[in-house]
Amino acid sequence: MRSWLKWAAAAATSLALLGGPAAAQDSFYAGKTITLIVPASAGGSYGIYAQLVADALTKHIPGNPQVLPQYVGGAGGMRASNQVANTAETDGTVIYLMHQNAPSQQLLSPDQVSYDAGKFIPIGVISALNSAMAIRNDAPATDLAGFKQKEVLIGTTGRGSYQYVIPTLLNSFQDTKFKVITTYPGTGETMLAVDRGEVHGMLSSLLTFQESRPDWVTGKGDAKLVFQIGETRDPAIPDVPLLRELAASDEEKQLYRFMSAANSIGRGLVFPAGVPEDRVAMVRTALQEVLKDPDFQALAKKRGIPLSSASAEEMKTIIDGILATPKEVVEKARQYMTEG
C-alpha cells in the first residue's frame, strides 16, 4: 500500500510539474463560450473582422472555447463601449472589438459615455484602417467646392462618431453645407440609404466599401470616394486626398490629426477592466499566434482583408495618446461640432 501511495504521489507531482499552469489555464476556457462584442451591425468592416478572427481565436486559445460575435450597433459605437464597461463579465469570457473612436468619443461627448477607454485592457490590433467619405454621383455636389454651395445629406449612426464629427468640422472650417442625418442603426442600413438616394453620402472604413461596394472605390458605380482619413494615403486609393490635405489652416489640420489618430487602432481587441492577468496574457498570445498563422493570413488575403497588426503595448500607447490630447484641441473640436 505504501509503495502505491508513493507512486501516486510521485505521478501527481510529475503531472503538476509538466502541465500545472497550462492545465489550469486550459481548464478555464474548455467548454466555454467567449462573446465578441461588435460595435456595429454585421454588414460593416467590424463584422467582417469579427467573423474572420472568431474561428481563428477558437483554434488558438487554450481550451478551444467558442467565440461568437454579438452585434451591438448604435450611437456611433458608444452603446457597445458603455455596455462592455458597465455590464460585461470580467472573467475573460467577453472580448470587445473596440470601436476605433472610443477614446476620442470619450473626450468629445463626455455626457454620453459611461466608460473610460484607458481602463479597457488591450489585447492587440488586427489591422489599422483608413476611412473615407463616399458621395453619390447624382448628389447636388461631389467635390469640396460644390459642397460649399449646395446642401448634401450625409447618413450616420449617431452624434459623437467620426461619421458625424468630420462633416460638421468641414461645415465649420470650410463652410460646407453638409446636413448630417443620425437615424441609421448601422453601417449596412446607412449604405442602403445611400443606394436608395435617401442620403447623398456616408463615411465608413475603406474596407467596408471594398467589401460591400467595390465599384464605389473604383469610381465605376453610383458613388465615388472624395477623401480619406488616416495617417497616409491607402495604396488602394492613392489618388483620393487625405482629409488633412484639404485643411485650410494649421488649426484645422491639428483637429483632423486628432480625428485621424484612431485609424491606427482601426480593428483592435480589448477586455473590460478586471479580467485576471493570466487570461489576458493567454488571449494576447493567442491573437499573436492567429496573426502569424499562415492559414489565417491566406484566408485574409483571399478575401482581400488587410492585416496591419500592433501589439497590446502599442495599442495602449495610441489610446493613451488620444486621451492625452490637449484640452484646447478637444474644446475646439467640440465647439465646431456644436456650431455644425
From TrEMBL:
It comes from the Bacteria. Residues 1-24 form the signal peptide. Transmembrane segments: none annotated. Pfam families: TctC. It comes from Propylenella binzhouense. The keyword Signal applies. The keyword Glycoprotein does not apply. Coiled coil: none annotated. This is Tripartite tricarboxylate transporter substrate binding protein. Keywords: Signal. InterPro entries: BUG, Bug_dom1. Belongs to the UPF0065 (bug) family. SUPFAM superfamilies: Periplasmic binding protein-like II.
